[in-house]
UniProtKB/TrEMBL annotation:
Keyword Transcription annotated: no
Pfam families according to UniProt: 7tm_3, ANF_receptor, NCD3G
Protein name from the UniProt record: G-protein coupled receptors family 3 profile domain-containing protein
Residue intervals passing through the bilayer: 424-449, 461-482, 494-518, 530-555, 583-606, 618-638, 650-673
InterPro entries referenced in this protein's UniProt entry, alphabetically: ANF_lig-bd_rcpt, GPCR_3, GPCR_3_9-Cys_dom, GPCR_3_9-Cys_sf, GPCR_3_C, GPCR_3_Ca_sens_rcpt-rel, Peripla_BP_I
Similarity field: Belongs to the G-protein coupled receptor 3 family.
Length: 710
């Protein structure tokens, strides 16, 4: 068996080629893996790999690239530094590092190239990078380079945890060649350390050679040999062999056969050496993994500069974390908490990201053509929020809440609807009741003066039905006010549609009656059969029945229902009635519109008939108002939002009701109440004869014929 305390070649871990090789120093593979684990623990997501162009750099760089990509960390640059110094290639590497945005750099270089890259970066604009390497000497070189604080804001290095040999400094300082004259090494070591020649029995003193006096002392003296200063590294290897021998002799190696040291073969030591497990005096566990590599513990050294950017402020070992692992087991890196730094940076871990975190109220939008860790922060859209950092998308607030002005949390919405007690609702209510009262008053006047010529000449029955329907039209807006409920949502539009259809159909029937009555010039003609009350009632019933059927189909297929509107008014939850089927609602309005246009057309054609016979001009004017109101209603209704939609429809209902009531009945009330002399039968008879003579033959204007006119 061979136990090495200095070899780091990863290939020596292959037990197929080197079955009897063990080591107490971490291989390059383990050290590289420790560097990768350190980067993962730092939480970096955007790094640079700086590797040397040799076997070590290529293997370590490839391992780092593979493991980092597996962990979702993006690599901005994977730069290769030539083993043989090339000014052109070094310049290219430095230029790329100048243009990089990553602040974390994984370094897999030898000492000379490490120093060369650092010195080449001096004189450029500040980078603020943090370098991570596997060697403690790299950190020391970085801290000792003058002016490097402009390039680096810190450095991390790994220190292999070694147990110190107790009593070795005292033992070593007490050594003297005179005590062990047969130790040739000690004599040569003494001569090399103090620059003298140890006198021998047959040696002669010359002028060129200074003889050692023996009064020299090793205590506190710096040794010229590195192996002496790093003797602690060999401690673990020596004690591993010692414990293996102890287990072999004491039959604790597992074979159950005790071995005599007098007949010991070297191969017998291999098995207990692989199974050795002991603790050093400082409590460190010593054991080998399946590949013969010591399960290594690394101390993590962090170096930073003071607030003035001068000398290092943290050169001692702060022990912010440690890593334990071998080649056959995954390592573990304890959480890092920096003990270095200045001001608010003290206690913080350096970061290396392509894009800084998005604050609450913003979401990450990926940038085109760059890795997914590079993004832009965009404010959350209307109705959404983001209450955490690093949110890739904003969240939708619950229905009853809306985002704050900063869009970092949700606030409860206020429920609103058109109420009776608010100014607008109260005004509409008063207008509705006033119009209904006026319609009832007109209805009472017509009932009281029902036998007068003005009331009789304009089809009393149709007038009564029209006044009742207008009263209901004036009261229907009350269904649109108040908190929407399933019942009011069902009754709102259907009641409005039916009562307005009855009103418009009554106007159509009155217009047709006037027009046909004037054109029935000869007694006994067939057109006179259409002048009776049954014909007028049929027009009203058929027209109203069509609308009732449409409303019935609407209610049976997709009826209106209460709905909470969150999009109309930010910060409010608008309670309103959803039409259900938009097609059915459009058909209802379309039918009412066609009926109104037809009525207006008939009234417009009959507007020039003699006033004594008809009310065509008043009907034309009232229908003109009606059509104008509802023509303006359509664009206003579709552009309004929230409870303004209800207000627009209520205003249109009241305006059209007032137009029909005022245009048709107020002139008649004026004659009945203020001009009673024009409401007398004789006055009306004279007026009819005068106007009839102007437009009809003489035999048609006799009193008998006029008496037969409706």
């Amino acid at each position: 068996p061979q136990v090495s305390h200095s070899s780091t070649l990863p290939s020596l871990s292959d037990k197929t080629q080197f079955p009897s090789f063990l080591r107490t120093r971490a291989s390059d593979f383990v050290s590289s893996l420790a560097v990768i684990q350190l980067v993962l623990s730092l939480g970096w997501s955007w790094v640079i790999i700086l590797a040397q162009d040799d076997e070590f750099g290529q293997q370590a760089g490839a391992l780092a690239a593979r493991e980092l990509e597996k962990a979702g960390i993006c690599i901005e640059f994977h730069l290769t530094v030539p083993s043989q110094h090339s000014l052109e290639k070094i310049t290219c590497v430095v230029q790329k590092m100048q243009t990089s945005t990553a602040t974390g750099v994984l370094v897999f270089l030898n000492n000379s190239n490490f120093r060369l890259i650092l010195q080449s970066l001096l004189g450029f604009h500040p980078l603020g990078q943090v370098w991570v390497s596997e060697g403690l000497l790299h950190t020391a070189l970085a801290l000792a380079t003058p002016g490097i604080s402009q390039i680096l804001q810190g450095a991390f290095g790994l220190l292999c945890h070694n147990s110190q040999v107790q009593g070795f400094p005292e033992f070593f300082s007490s050594l003297h060649p005179s005590q062990i004259p047969e130790d040739v090494f000690l004599v040569r070591f003494w001569e090399a350390t103090f620059g003298c020649k140890w006198p021998h029995e047959n040696s002669t003193e010359t002028e060129d050679v200074r003889l050692c006096t023996g009064a020299e002392s090793l205590r506190g003296h710096e040794f010229p040999f590195q192996d002496v200063s790093e003797v602690d590294i060999a401690y673990t290897a020596v004690y591993s062999v010692a414990h293996a021998l102890q287990d072999l002799v004491s039959c604790e190696h597992g074979s159950g056969v005790c071995t005599d040291l007098q007949h010991l073969h070297p191969w017998q030591l291999l098995h207990p050496l692989r199974k050795v497990h002991f603790q050093t005096h400082d409590g460190t566990d010593i054991m080998f993994d399946a590949n013969g590599d010591l399960v290594t513990k690394f101390d993590v050294l962090q170096g930073q500069w003071n607030c003035r950017g001068g000398s290092p402020c943290c050169t001692e070992k702060p022990r912010p974390g440690h890593w334990i692992g071998g080649t056959s087991e995954p390592g573990f890196l304890s959480p890092l908490v920096s003990q270095c730094g200045c001001g608010s940076n003290q206690g913080s871990v350096p970061s290396s990201v392509c894009s800084t975190s998005c604050e609450p109220g913003f979401s990450q939008i990926p940038r085109q053509g760059v890795p997914h860790y590079c993004f832009e922060c965009h404010p959350c859209p209307e109705g959404q929020f983001a209450d955490l950092l690093y949110m890739k998308s904003c969240l939708q607030c619950p229905e009853k809440q809306y985002p704050s002005q900063t869009r970092d949390h949700c606030i409860p919405r206020t429920e609103i609807f058109l109420t009776f007690d608010e100014p607008l609702g109260l005004a509409l209510t008063l207008v509705s009741l006033a119009l209904a009262s006026l319609a009832c008053l007109v209805f009472g006047v017509f009932l009281w003066f029902r036998h007068t010529p003005v009331v009789r000449a304009n089809n009393r029955a149709l007038s009564y039905v029209l006044l009742v329907s207008l009263t209901l039209c004036a009261l229907s807006p009350l269904l649109f006010l108040g908190r929407p409920s399933p019942t009011t949502c069902l009754l709102r539009q259907t009641t409005f549609a039916v009562v307005f259809t009855v009103a418009v159909s009554c106007v159509l029937a009155k217009t047709l009656t006037v027009d046909l009555a004037f054109r029935a010039t000869r007694p006994g003609q067939r057109v006179r059969m259409c002048l009776g009350n049954s014909a007028s009632s049929s027009v009203v019933l058929v027209s109203s029945l069509m609308q009732i059927i449409l409303c019935g189909v609407w209610l049976g297929t997709s009826p209106p229902f209460p709905h909470r509107d969150t999009a109309s008014e930010p910060g409010h939850l608008v309670l309103q009635c959803q039409e259900g089927s938009g097609m059915a609602f459009s058909c209802m309005l379309g039918y009412l519109g066609l009926l109104a246009i037809g009525t207006f057309s008939v009234a417009f054609l009959a507007r020039d008939l003699p006033d004594a016979f008809n009310e065509a001009k008043f009907l034309t004017f009232s229908m003109l108002l009606f059509c104008s109101v509802w023509t303006a209603f359509l664009p206003l209704y579709h552009s309004a939002r929230g409870k303004a939609t209800v207000a627009v429809e209520v205003f249109s209902i009241l305006a059209s009701t007032a137009g029909l009531l005022g245009g048709i009945f107020l002139p008649k009330c004026y004659l009945i109440l203020l001009k009673p002399e024009q409401n007398a039968p004789t006055k009306l008879q004279i007026a009819r004869q005068t106007q009839c003579a102007a437009v009809a033959p003489t035999n048609m204007c006799t009193p008998m014929f006029l008496a037969q006119r409706p």
